[in-house]
Write a structure and sequence with these properties.
The protein has 13 helices and 22 strands. The protein is of the alpha/beta class.
Length: 471
């Protein structure tokens, strides 16, 4: 076990022992392993090949050859062999291919004064290039490259696009995008989806570069009317079919410029833990629970929860407008967006997605609770109707997956004063988690908790907590 996992577990154990729960023994801190997402990563060290998004600065040496570097404490660090070991296999391959092409020289020499020098084959792409970002799908099938340019910006669009198309095809990128201040140019590779290619051919403006993914839920069907579905696995590949198993595909379209989980293996492990925890909660209730999800992102958790057959309704809240739109679109792709016709012609009434700040949402909910008014003030949304809001303060489960700084105090207060019987907290900030649990444990007990190595080789861990209301 890595030292940081020992430290994280010791911190949690120390906190648990400080709680005054004489009739409730402290749960054991479990250590979970990140799921294996491909045959390639299964053979590598755990500290390697896990990141599906990486950015690098581009520097030139004395021979005018370019290379990818990273910065550490303000200093440039060259990568051994041009490899960034935390990057997944697809990004490593993309780095090597891109640098090889950018440093390729023509056989014909260009004379400058008394010197004759060879010119670079992809000269227009090289000009003013300062950095590159690689994004891959969780399954490493799709890879996007975004080239960032400093002043005076992108070279002439036509010449740049011609060179970018060659790079896109030779490196098998789904898309290559050039960005400078106020300018964005994109070209597509042969691996891009037909719908995206059609949009560009028709002259549509793509506001976001999209990464596509599919994961599979393996659900064991209930044995009778009183039992519930059980989530057996979450994976990148379709599980084997059997008479008592339902395999459910979940499709995602994720904006590359907004946040998405950078470690696919940890994402799958956390998602399975969430689904199996909620499955246990659902088994104890006579009706399917209703769930409020805050910091929902593009719907990475939202959609599988909606398709798990475990939840009656989900309200998802997210501040970033790009992710709000992505979450709505993903719900639409998977036929679970509330009040929209599904592909089968029936109406799904499961997921409602709102743009809003978690702290502001919590503050408004608290005001409603204090006023004994069940209709919250839903701002900045076209769904603030009476029929929608009548019971938006009535939830059984609260799911939160905040950034490193943790929960706003008002979200903790909402959890305590609301109707939530269960709270699932996904944390990537250990100090903030202890702070928030100190508040939440006045009303909740910790039922289960687990720790995963979020970014091997760093001090980051992901902690999964299930809290249950005391009374």
């Amino acid at each position: 076990m890595e030292n940081k996992l020992k430290i994280a577990c010791n911190e949690l154990d120390k906190f648990l022992s400080s709680l005054s729960q004489p009739n409730s023994p402290s749960p054991e801190v479990k250590l979970l392993s990140a799921a294996v997402t491909s045959k390639t990563t299964s053979s590598l060290d755990s500290a390697e090949a896990y990141r599906c998004k990486c950015s690098f600065q581009i520097v030139a040496d004395d021979n005018d050859d370019l290379s990818c570097v990273v910065r550490e404490n303000g200093s440039i660090c060259h990568l051994p062999g041009g490899i960034f070991f935390p990057a997944n296999f697809r990004i490593r391959k993309a780095m090597m291919c891109l640098m090889k092409l950018l440093n390729k020289r023509n056989d014909i020499k260009e004379r400058r004064g008394d010197d004759a020098k060879t010119t670079h084959t992809f000269q227009k792409i090289r000009e003013n290039l300062t950095s590159v970002t690689f994004d891959t799908s969780w399954d490493e099938v799709e890879c996007l490259a975004t080239l960032h340019y400093g002043p005076p910006g992108l070279p002439q669009a036509c010449e740049w696009k011609n060179e970018a198309q060659r790079v896109c095809d030779e490196c098998q990128f789904a898309q290559v995008t050039g960005r400078s201040k106020g300018i964005k140019i994109s070209v597509l590779g042969s691996t891009s989806s037909e719908s995206l290619a059609t949009a560009i051919d028709n002259g549509s403006i793509l506001e976001e570069d999209i990464i596509r993914d599919t994961i599979w839920l393996e659900l064991k069907m209930p044995i009778d009317d009183k039992s519930t579905y059980r989530v057996m696995s979450v994976s990148m590949v379709q599980p084997n079919q059997s008479a008592d198993i339902l395999n459910v595909p979940i499709q995602y379209q994720k904006p590359a410029t907004a946040f998405q989980h950078p470690n696919a293996g940890v994402m799958l492990t956390s998602l399975l833990w969430i689904l199996q925890t909620i499955s246990k909660v659902a088994e104890q209730q006579s009706t399917k629970p209703r769930l409020l999800e805050m910091y929902c992102g593009c719907g990475a958790h939202t959609i599988p929860l909606a398709k798990s057959m475990l939840i009656s309704e989900i309200v998802a809240v997210e501040l970033d407008e790009r992710l709000v739109n992505a979450c709505k679109n993903n719900c639409r792709l998977n036929n679970c967006l509330k009040d929209e016709e599904s592909e089968h012609g029936s109406k799904e009434t499961l997921v409602d997605v709102f743009k809003g700040d978690a702290a502001e949402w919590a503050a408004k909910t608290l005001r409603c609770i204090h006023k004994k008014n069940r209709v919250p003030e839903v701002a900045n949304t076209d769904k603030a109707t009476t029929s929608l809001a009548n019971d938006y303060n009535q939830f059984d489960i609260l799911l939160v997956d905040p950034p490193r700084q943790g929960l706003d105090k008002t979200v903790c207060e909402m959890a305590i004063e609301g109707t939530f019987s269960h709270l699932l907290y996904i944390s990537c900030g250990r100090r903030a988690l202890i702070r928030d649990l100190t508040i939440l444990c006045s009303e909740f007990t910790i039922e289960d908790l687990a720790v995963i190595d979020l970014f091997p080789g760093t001090d980051a861990v992901e902690t999964l907590i299930h809290l249950k209301r005391k009374h």
